[in-house]
Amino acid sequence: MREQLEKIKEEALKQIEASDALERLNDIRVAYLGKKGELTSVLKSMKDVSPEERPKVGQMVNEARALIEAKLEETKNVLARKAREEQMKREVIDVTLPAEKGNVGHSHPNTIALEEVERIFVGMGYEVVEGPEVEHDLYNFEKLNIPANHPAKDEQDTFYINKEIVLRTQTSPVQVRTMEQGKLPIRMIAPGRVFRSDEVDATHSPSFHQIEGLVIDKNITFADLKGTLAEFARELFGPETKVKFRPHHFPFTEPSAEVDVTCFKCGGKGCRFCKGSGWIEILGCGMVHPHVLEMSGIDPEEYSGFAFGVGLERIALLKYEIDDMRLLYENDIRFLKQF
Ligand code: DAH
To answer: Which cofactor does it need (predicted)?
Structure first.
């Protein structure tokens, strides 16, 4: 038995010495000192030892256990220290290295263009207001002089929540919402997302953005509209920019016009950018229809005003010379970083 104990002890110490990981030490502890461990089984066989010998053997077992435990503890400390040192080495920070550049995001071209448009109009005393993207058919169509059977409603086919509620097809309903508040005069722009059931291509998307503009006051004339939009175009595209008003039809303005600007790429001579015409269309506008004023509780005998609607993507595409609208929605950082 004495020999057996010696052997167990030696074997345990050898194994402890040879172990190079903390987990391994635990295995050894279990194998020798655990409930089913080797040393424990020696204790269990004490019944075969003569009564006189028992205390001695018992003492030997205890000594062996103490020794193994001490060795385990010591080795554990050594290994733990080594592991810590290695970790410190791995995680050493060289404060002299150049700092890693933080990955800062980048404003979307739409956002840059919108901020520019807002800057121009706020500079002219306009307020920036917002309206809901989910809108009543009443505001999106009826109160803008587009009754149920009007063909303009077809052109702006949209997504219906139910019969009375739609995803707005234009930011023009914000005109109605602003007028209905009854605070006059009005000088506002209303940027926001709009929706149409259009297929995606280089110039269309089922969801895009517009910026609405509305001015209502006494004695507002078409001259005010012209002057304002000419100034806007010069600010946005450069001081040489000229504007052209082409007669058009919108149900909520009368008279109505579409506005073209001289191509800022060729200065009006005609190029690939303006498809040879020298002009680029940028927005729709007109004098607010008296019936629209009336429906919003404003007396058209006393007040008049003008309105306009700009496609934000259109401005961004033109200003930054982007030839495919889809690029604006893909959020590829390599693309966005260029502006
Ligand atoms: N809402 C029109 C559209 O989406 C654009 C527009 C035209 C807005 C004339 C106006 C306006 O305010 O006066 O096509």
So the answer is: Mg(2+)
Give the pLDDT confidence of 296-321 residue by residue, as tens digits: 999 999 999 999 999 999 999 988 98
Atom 6, ligand 1: residue with shortest CA distance: 309
Chain segment 198-240, per-residue pLDDT in tens: 899 988 899 999 999 999 999 999 999 999 999 999 999 999 9
Residue that has been written with the tokens 């435990």 in this structure: 69
Domain 107-335 is in which class?
alpha beta
Is 172 a pocket residue for ligand 1 (Cβ < 6 Å)?
A: yes
Q: Which residue numbers belong to the known binding site for Mg(2+)?
A: 254
Find the helix packing angle between 312-319 and 222-237, rounded to 10°: 40
The DSSP element (H or E) to which 84 belongs, if any, is helix 54-90
Q: How far apart are CA 221 and CA 243, in angstroms?
A: 17
* Residue located via tokens 């077992």: 61
Domain boundaries, the chain: 1-91, 107-335
DSSP state of 310: E
The response to whether residue 284 sits with its C-beta less than 6 Å from ligand 1 reads yes
Tell the residue nearest (CA) to atom 9 of ligand 1: 285
Provide long-range contacts, Cβ within 8 A and 24+ apart, for 6-14: 8/32, 8/38, 8/39, 8/42, 8/64, 9/64, 9/67, 9/68, 12/38, 12/68, 12/71, 13/67, 13/68, 13/71
pTM for this one?
0.71
Nearest Cα neighbor of 286 from 310, 300, 305, 262 is 305
At 68-77, the pLDDT tens digits run 999 999 999 9
Ligand 1: which residue has its CA nearest to atom 8? 309
Residue nearest to atom 2 of ligand 1 (CA): 309
